[in-house]
Amino acid sequence: MRIAIPLQDGVLSAHFGRCQAYAFIDTNPETKALTRQTVITSPPHQPGALPVWVAEHGADVVITGGMGPRAIELFQQHGVDVVLGAPSDEPEKVAEAYLRGDLTTTENVCDHDA
Length: 114
Fold this sequence. Notes:
alpha/beta
């Protein structure tokens, strides 16, 4: 499984669309182990482009603080699950909590309607 986490200043970004980079974390869900992390600078923001870009990088799930409903729909159309309301923390800690099944999330922090 590959987890994508948007980053701002080295921690999970509350808004996936305008982050500095993405951490792509390869995992072994059976052992709940992180196997590799790659950080890639985000492309310039263009509506609708990031879900495709993240999917092209092999992500199975994106974990973020928030995103609008159109972005959620685009991720799902490209086979990428969406986890919203995640805390701003180091990507490894977020991924480990997700794999353990104890990632604490709150409501979607995004206020975009479209």
